[in-house]
Design a protein that fits this description.
Keywords: FAD, Flavoprotein, Membrane, Oxidoreductase, Transmembrane, Transmembrane helix. The protein is of the alpha/beta class. The chain contains eleven helices and 24 strands. Helix 1 packs parallel to helix 9. The structure holds flavin-adenine dinucleotide.
């Protein structure tokens, strides 16, 4: 009798097929295709990829491409599970899915992204958000009905880049509606004066009424309340101010930061649970200049790096340090205008600013690029490992 037992397959479970989770899953699956000793399983509530960078377009009724995740994974050996993770048990190394299934893992990649921070009273009940395709479609429907009525006021709460993009998009698509953009900061804060001037002019051209320096204290069924005691009436409120992450990691006892993000080491492993890697917006990844703020440009590299760290660890090697430097902040201002503020690796603005039609083309190229990158990575995984490492801004003693 043959007593040899086949070695158990190493199970890598990736939670979330966003920019970061999908990058991790494709990179891992492509590099281990046909190996039989490692299996990748990807869990996501939808079987199409949500281009979160386009959700402000979805919210104005524009159709975006149907990008099938199972088709992308086809031929890589990775398995796709449609579902929503509801609990992680790091002791048992299992994840519970909303349909009751329990999935086992040896290594977990946590990439559940972030959602709008609706902590302000009334926002959860009365405000729309751009957290997913369904919510964006509900807003699109509401805006359509207001536009058919011929008038209405839409308040966009939050003057960060998502708020600016959404306000411009709504104003361009629905010129009959009054769009009010409210926030603590002036739009474009943190960009060069030339970028800010272009942004201000574009918002004015589109008729967006901007009020910076205000604090929204509550969202009401018919408007928003401000800290100075006044109210801004609205027929619809879109909330874009700040982001928060799902409480799953904190509930599971993983070390998280003040915003609930999984705190990682330089290889992108959880500092409390090294068999858990965290990527994208759900991770608190420290670089020489500070903790990464959630962006697509940094999210995809974290996914690829986590995959490479997992493979190095399984091969008995020390994983490399993750290093990333920002290079741009592109902001769309409707379909034919944009501002691109080029940045230093630490995110501070450089002198170079692109505006107008060329900036809009640049922004569209950037927005459209993740999916072709995944497709390319499936065939040539090394192509996904190219990103700016940040030079001296991210160099530490161990990376010299
Ligand atoms: C309107 C808008 C415009 C933006 N524009 C830009 C931009 O121009 N440039 C830029 O760099 N960034 C931009 N961002 C930010 C960018 O979208 C995020 O930083 C990026 O999506 C983070 O990628 P991620 O993979 O971490 O998360 P996500 O892309 O949010 O992916 C998370 C995935 O996890 C899934 N998920 C959620 N909960 C569960 C669960 N319980 N179980 C399983 N799966 C789950 C989600 O469905 C999703 O597929 C924009 C954001 C918005 C909203």
């Amino acid at each position: 009798m043959n007593s040899t037992v086949a070695p158990r397959r190493h199970e890598v479970l990736v939670l979330g097929a966003g920019y970061a989770g999908l990058a991790a899953a494709v990179q891992l699956a492509a590099r281990t295709r046909g190996r039989g000793d490692l299996r990748v399983t990807l869990v996501n509530p939808y079987d199409t990829f949500t281009e979160r960078l386009r959700l402000h377009m979805t919210a104005t009724g524009r159709r975006t491409a149907e990008l099938s995740i199972p088709e992308l994974l086809d031929g890589t050996g990775a398995e796709f599970v449609r579902g929503r993770a509801t609990a992680v048990d790091p002791g048992a190394r299992t994840v519970r899915i909303d349909d009751g299934r329990v999935l086992r893992y040896d290594t977990l990649v946590y990439g559940l992204g972030s959602v709008a921070d609706i902590a302000v009273p009334g926002a959860a009940e009365h405000a729309h958000t751009l957290d997913g395709p369904e919510g964006a479609a509900v807003l699109a429907d509401r805006l359509d009905r207001l536009a058919r009525r011929g008038a209405g006021t839409v308040v966009v709460g939050g003057s960060g880049l998502t708020g600016v993009e959404a306000a411009a998009e709504i104003a361009e698509r629905h010129p009959e509606l009054t769009v009010v953009l409210l926030g603590r900061d002036e739009p474009g804060a943190g960009t060069r004066p030339r970028a800010r001037a272009h942004l201000d002019a574009a918002l004015a051209r589109l008729g967006v009424r901007v009020r910076g320096g205000v604090e929204v204290t509550g969202v009401l069924p018919d408007g928003v309340a401000l800290a100075d005691g006044t109210r801004v009436p609205a027929d619809a409120v879109l909330w874009t101010s700040g982001t928060r992450v799902l409480p799953l990691a904190a509930a599971a006892g993983l070390a998280v930061d003040g915003r609930g993000r999984v705190v990682t080491d330089r290889a992108l492993r959880s500092v409390s649970h090294p068999d858990v890697y965290a990527v994208g917006d759900a991770a608190a990844v420290r670089q020489g200049y500070g903790v990464l703020h959630g962006t697509c440009q940094s999210g995809m590299p974290t996914g690829v790096h986590a995959a490479l760290s997992i493979l190095r660890t399984l091969a008995g090697k020390e994983p490399r340090d993750f290093r990333f430097g920002y290079y741009h902040t592109p902001v769309s201002l409707g379909r034919n205008d944009a501002v691109v503020q080029f940045t230093h690796p630490d995110g501070s603005p450089r002198r170079i600013v692109l505006t107008g039609r060329w900036a809009a083309k640049y922004k569209e190229t950037v927005t459209a690029s993740p999916w072709p990158t995944f497709v390319r990575m499936k065939k040539a995984p090394a192509s996904g490992a190219i990103w700016p490492r940040g030079g001296r801004h991210t160099r530490t003693r161990s990376t010299k």
